Amino acid sequence: MRQPSPGQRQIPVVVLAGFLGSGKTSLLNHLLHRSGGSRIGAIVNDFGAIEIDAMAVAGALGDSTVSLGNGCLCCAVDVSELDGYLDRLAAPSAGIDVIVIEASGLAEPQELVRMVLASEHPGIVYGGLVEVVDAAEFDDTRARHPAIDRHLALADLVVVNKVDRAEDEGQRVLRLVRSIVDRAAVVAAAYGRVDPEFLFDCRPSEERVGQLSFDDLHDQERDQGDHDHNEDRHDEDGHAAHLHAGYESLSFVAETPMDPRRLMAFLDSRPAGLYRIKGYVDFGAYDVRNRYAVHAVGRFLRFYPEPWPAGAPRLTQLVLIGSGIDAPALRKELEASTSDAPHTADEHGMWGVLRYVQDPGEQDPAS
Predict the structure, then answer these.
(1) What is d(CA 335, CA 260) in angstroms, rounded to the nearest whole number?
(2) What's the rounded mean pLDDT across residues 304-311?
(3) Residue from 342, 356, 341 nearest 365 by CA
């Protein structure tokens, strides 16, 4: 994936996978209905399985959809062809905010992720692998498709769907899935209803922090209780507005610069379930010219140095979203990663950060 130009907006590309019947299409249609104004582009295998009427109600995707009916995406196209589809959806004229690749039920998730990461399109960024499993059929699915354990181990987010049809509301399957995954966030759902804000910004703005807008950094603390305990909120259909969302979010703002070594120690040891981190980091004297946009989803991590905008306050602004995370403990760790001691930055301090900057040889953090 090529380095974007400074200030260039990147569109997250989410890979949506899961075996046949797990509920991928239901989840995609739910996202379309609850996008909050964000425009979703879709690359879909087996388009005939999509509920056309539901899509029309959701906003008639029209030219925002690429339909592939010629087999599994991972086998039918190569990286250059995928770049062609992404170029069409990521064009500024399309106004797309997030791209979802809904894979065939028999696709190989690892290959799809590899293709997205290998993309040469500078306007997109990997948005994570979401695996959907059917809680009611999970045991039978594992027996028929042993590869599911490997797929789950690769996931950044696992949606255990159809818990309403499973015994004990899917609690046994949730425990089993959590024992299989590697650091992924795991959330329960019925009818594919996962809060879209877990995946993307539902209030598009010119400048974003993760799935949440900069406005959230100011009002989220006030609304935290309602945001984290939203089972009681209902939409116009009488359903829970955030049914089984099962996620927590944390906003962090610091006027004191971050110490790069301490921050990297935090990021390298981030806990299981911390699905998403995005925002801007001020490293103070280590790089006085640039702020560092940070983008993490699951185990994927990238930093993007960019010049400080004229007049912008020198702040670190981060949003963290996950399932089963200890938000107060994470805040303490981030606070401990700041450094207000007067110092002259040493030349090796940024090495850990530069490991996650593409083409680090072209960057000069001390300049």
Answers:
(1) 13
(2) 92
(3) 356
Q: For position 180, what pLDDT does the model report? A: 94
What one-letter code names the amino acid at 193? Answer: R
Q: What angle do CA 178, 184, 188 make, to 5 degrees?
A: 60
pTM over 0.70: yes
Neighbour count for residue 199 (Cβ, 10 Å):
26
* Paired strand residues for 16: 102, 130
Round to whole Å and give the CA distance between 141 and 147.
Answer: 10
Cα–Cα–Cα angle for 211, 213, 219, nearest 5°?
115
Distances from the Cα of 7 to the Cα of 139, 214, 308, angstroms: 47, 15, 10
Q: What is the dihedral of CA 239, 171, 157, 140, to 10 degrees?
A: -110
Q: How far apart are CA 292 and CA 300, in angstroms?
A: 16
pLDDT in tens, 144-200: 888 899 999 999 999 999 999 999 989 999 999 999 998 899 999 999 999 888 888
H/E run at residue 327:
helix 327-335
- Taking alpha carbons only, the member of 62, 361, 53, 38 closest to residue 200 is 38
Instruction: Kindly report, residue by residue over 311-336, the tens digit of the pLDDT.
Output: 989 999 999 988 888 999 999 999 99
CA-atom Rg of the chain in angstroms:
20
